[in-house]
Write a structure and sequence with these properties.
The chain has 231 residues and is an alpha+beta fold. The protein contains five helices and ten strands, in the order H-H-E-E-E-E-E-H-E-E-E-E-E-H-H.
């Protein structure tokens, strides 16, 4: 039996809204209905920002280091900085001689306790001030003797729904939970009797998607060695 041979299925914002209303047994026909659903969809995307790391929104960024400068502002669409390292070359200049050194992420209290935050040398730690636009603080301030670029992995915000003809900024494996989540949000406004039912479906769909959205890496478990006599 022949198959389609394609793997391009996606939903635009209009399709997602239609699916959400249909799951509530409704038809969103008026302009206000459409705007209300789009607003709920944007709120759903914002709520996903509290659910953990979404791999399709992870991206490697870089900033040229400035001698003696400790703070570096990242893009406004960044939610958090996951990992950072300093490098001897920019990304475009990566070669066999490129040297990278990983930085340790510390919290605000640990950064506040550092005695001389403007000391220069090779950076070894960083603190992320998570304001509306996050700022990275390095310790020590770079001296540029070897490392000239700060490279860091970020988790970016999911893009707004925007025009109804847009595709959602969502990986295909999250399409089911996106539709289920919108149906749950719409039920709170349009079909209160279906709120609990749609919530259970949404949470179940989202859990499966988040469980799948992980990195498959090897795990090694080593038993602890204990020598009671010190030998």
């Amino acid at each position: 039996m022949a198959t389609s041979g394609t793997t391009s299925f996606n939903l635009n914002i209009d399709d997602v809204i239609t699916e959400g209303y249909e799951r509530c047994g409704l038809v969103g026909s008026s302009g206000y209905d459409m705007r209300s659903a789009r607003r709920s969809l944007d709120l759903l995307f914002a709520e996903w920002g509290n659910r953990g790391i979404h791999l399709w929104k992870t991206e490697l960024n870089e900033i040229a280091l400035v001698s003696g400068q400790v703070n570096y502002t990242v893009d406004s669409d960044v939610n958090d900085v996951l990992e950072a390292y300093v490098s001897s070359t920019a990304a475009a200049g990566n070669n066999i001689n490129t040297q990278d050194v990983s930085l340790t992420k510390i919290d605000r209290s640990a950064y506040a306790a550092l005695p001389n935050k403007l000391a220069t040398g090779q950076p070894s730690q960083y603190y992320v001030d998570r304001q509306t636009t996050p700022v990275i603080y390095l310790y020590q301030a770079p001296d540029l003797n070897t490392y000239t670029t700060l490279k860091f992995y970020v988790i970016k915000r999911i893009e707004d729904a925007g025009a109804y003809t847009n595709d959602a900024d969502v990986a295909y494996r999250f399409l089911p939970c996106m539709c289920a989540g919108l149906a749950y949000y719409l039920a709170m406004k349009k079909a209160p009797a279906l709120v609990q039912q749609n919530k259970l479906i949404y949470e179940d769909e989202l859990k499966r998607a988040l469980d799948e959205d992980g990195q498959r890496t090897s795990t090694y478990i080593t038993p602890q060695s204990f020598y009671p006599n010190g030998v």
